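re: that chain from earlier
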Amino acid sequence: EFDVRPGGEVHSFSRSLGDYGCTFTYSAQGGTNEQWQMNVGVSEDNGLFSCSIWRPQGKSYLFFTQFKAEVKGAKIEYAMAYSQAAAGAQSDIPLKQEEFEVGETTVSHREGKFRFELSKLMIVAKTPRDEL
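^ sequence. v structure.
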């Protein structure tokens, strides 16, 4: 668990697992601190590394001016950002495709398109497998 803090400053939170890591960098405004969670995992065959960042209460009421999630040691295969995370009867609501961009190792807001709402990020990345 970590606190997502408003105030407009850039903050970072990281977790790692073996050779892989995930870092969430953001700045947010309004409201008070929110408790968020980050989970990292590796598939049984070590082929995939996953990183999820979300607010367990579902919706974040903070106004995100920027965000970036970066994986270390793996290349992103799939990533999705959501303005609302599932909680109770609510389901995940994805951001529009134009609001964020997915690179080889990062998922980040797209300047001028992102509508400042973020409650969840999901990343699945492929690990460099050693060919036998």
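The chain has one domain: 2-126.
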